């Protein structure tokens, strides 16, 4: 009898998706060069959309194993890049969209989708970082590449208590930046202060229509919200500053003008964590291994068993999840 393992399995009937735990065999896994014993996955906003009626049409093929990231140990490999026992992480590359993702105890993946974990990171901490933390690191790297440096004005992080925002606050503070945290939850201020935030902005103060150019407040920003919030952030960014746009929790529109770009030279930096090129992907994970304080990472992390995933997937869409949620697929 074939050995089975547990996975969250999504199907679609008459245009409606549903998910349920199911036992699978390795023969049912999609093709790929590397089989991974998955230890942990993560819960991201995008996962919440997929697991709650597939809002936003995250999953585009069925049947599907959702979960946009995973970490574990190589079980077997047909690629010279990896060998049995290697600790690896996978994020992006269409996982949970067109390729089976991380809500499973075993996965078969293309070798190019995997990154060997750097020193200082194990699979649990890799998923404490996850897609959200990886996106935050790409955002910080983009700001650095654009010339943003620590100075008199702070860097703003919107959606600061969320997964991307929490890691961005910790990374920026560790690199010597003054960090302003924008959040709609005053009860998270102590948590964010512990990660390195030195001032706070009410979410409502950013989510409003303002002038095309406002007073210069930020040397740069990491924006996870989009829409009117991003428009206001751009209007408040100082001359020759930059804003890394990496999320759309507030909407996908952008009601702004060209004035921040042509009168102040502000740079709007798009962050694509899904199809990030392999060399930059490896560089980002190396930086996460060295630049993200482990005590701060642990402070923002909650580990939950596989069985609680569906309930928490509703909470993350309602803004009730703080920091990073790691899913123990074997727990």
Rounded to an integer in angstroms, the radius of gyration calculated over CA atoms is: 20 Å
Broad CATH class of the largest domain: Alpha Beta
Class by alpha and beta content: alpha/beta
Beta-strand proportion? 25-35%
Our count of helices gives 10
Per DSSP E runs of 2 or more residues, the count of β-strands stands at: 15
Structure characterization notes:
Helix 2 (123-145) packs across helix 3 and helix 2 packs across helix 8. It contains ten helices and 15 strands. The longest helix is centred in the middle third of the chain and has 23 residues, at 123-145. The protein folds into two domains: 4-116 and 300-328, Quinone Oxidoreductase, Chain A, domain 1 (Alpha-Beta Complex), CATH 3.90.180; 131-270, NAD(P)-binding Rossmann-like Domain (Rossmann fold), CATH 3.40.50. The strands form three sheets. Strands 3, 4, 5, 6, 7, 14 and 15 form a seven-stranded mixed beta sheet that branches. Strands 10-9-8-11-12-13 form a six-stranded parallel beta sheet, with helices on both faces. A two-stranded antiparallel ribbon has the order 1-2. The protein has 331 residues and is an alpha/beta fold. The protein has helices at residues 45-51, 123-145, 163-174, 189-195, 203-206, 227-236, 259-263, 278-291, 294-299, 309-317, and strands at residues 4-13, 16-25, 34-43, 69-77, 87-91, 106-109, 114-116, 155-157, 179-183, 199-202, 218-223, 237-245, 267-270, 301-305, 324-328.
């Amino acid at each position: 009898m074939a050995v089975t393992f547990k996975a969250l399995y999504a199907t679609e009937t008459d245009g409606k998706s549903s998910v349920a735990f199911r036992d699978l065999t390795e023969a049912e896994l999609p093709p790929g060069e590397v089989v991974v014993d998955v230890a942990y996955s993560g819960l991201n906003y995008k996962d919440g959309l997929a697991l709650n009626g597939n809002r936003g049409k995250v999953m585009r093929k069925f049947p599907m194993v959702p979960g946009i990231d995973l970490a574990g140990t190589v079980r077997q490999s047909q690629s010279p890049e990896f060998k049995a026992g290697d600790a690896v992480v996978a994020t992006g590359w269409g996982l949970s969209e067109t390729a089976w993702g991380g809500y499973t105890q075993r996965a078969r993946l293309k070798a190019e989708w995997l990154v060997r974990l750097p020193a200082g990171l194990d699979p649990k901490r890799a998923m404490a970082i996850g897609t959200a933390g990886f996106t935050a690191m790409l955002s910080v790297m983009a700001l650095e590449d654009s010339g943003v440096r620590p100075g008199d004005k702070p860097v703003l992080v919107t959606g600061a208590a969320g997964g991307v925002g929490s890691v961005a606050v910790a990374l920026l503070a560790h690199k010597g930046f003054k960090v302003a945290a924008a959040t709609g939850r005053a009860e998270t201020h102590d948590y964010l202060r512990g990660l390195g935030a030195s001032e706070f902005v009410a979410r409502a103060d950013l989510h409003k229509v303002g002038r095309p150019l406002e007073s210069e407040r930020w040397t740069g920003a990491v924006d996870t919200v989009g829409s009117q919030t991003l428009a206001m952030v751009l209007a408040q960014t100082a001359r020759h500053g930059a804003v890394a746009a990496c999320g759309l929790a507030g909407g996908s529109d952008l009601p702004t003008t060209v004035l921040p770009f042509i009168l102040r030279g502000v740079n709007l930096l798009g962050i694509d964590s899904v199809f990030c090129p392999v060399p930059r992907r490896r560089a980002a994970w190396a930086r996460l291994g060295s630049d993200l304080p482990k005590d701060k990472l642990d402070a923002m992390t909650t580990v939950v068993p596989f069985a609680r995933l569906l309930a928490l997937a509703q909470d993350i869409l309602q803004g009730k999840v703080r920091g990073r949620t790691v899913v123990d697929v074997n727990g």
